[in-house]
Design brief:
single chain; 2 domains; 3-stranded antiparallel sheet
């Protein structure tokens, strides 16, 4: 998997140089074109999870950016309006993530989203305590964190 990733990065860099687009747009375009070229030639590489994993990483990034956008507007609206809609609470989210890397990635993605902050992990590493700014229902808040963040993280890295 890592060999194909490095090859895809080299194809992206080569595309950027050839097209004289040494910027992020040129690199992303080169990465997408390189990915398609590698996908077309996938029988040459045997069985690999690279192609599925890249799609899952893109879904994770898209989900995170969407959540980031929505939560920014929600916090902004709460700040600029005279009445406050926030109902803060500290909730415990049961974790399916087991390794240090998985827990760290889930906790950091939660903390990077405005309106939520990872506080602590239980001693047995089964519960992540999160401060949530907008809680209408505790179970809904837990489910959103598990479905939108933890599930996508685990799909992408496992």
């Amino acid at each position: 998997m890592s060999n194909l990733f490095v090859l895809n990065l080299l194809l992206a860099l080569g595309f950027s140089v050839i097209m004289d687009q040494l910027n992020i747009i040129g690199f992303i375009s080169g990465f997408v074109i390189g990915y398609v070229a590698l996908w077309i030639t996938r029988p040459l590489f045997g069985t690999t999870s690279y192609f599925v994993r890249v799609i899952k990483l893109v879904k994770l990034a898209a989900t995170f950016l969407w959540e980031l956008l929505i939560s920014n507007f929600r916090v902004l609206w709460d700040v600029i309006t005279p009445s406050h809609f926030s109902r803060p609470a500290v909730i415990g989210v049961p974790l399916d993530a087991s390794s240090d890397f998985e827990i760290m990635l889930v906790a950091n993605m939660i903390s990077l989203t405005p309106g939520t902050l990872s506080l602590d992990v239980s001693q047995d590493r089964k519960i992540l305590y999160v401060h949530v700014m907008f809680v209408d229902d505790l179970e809904t808040a837990r489910a959103q964190i598990k479905e939108k963040i933890e599930k996508r993280v685990l799909e992408a890295i496992r």
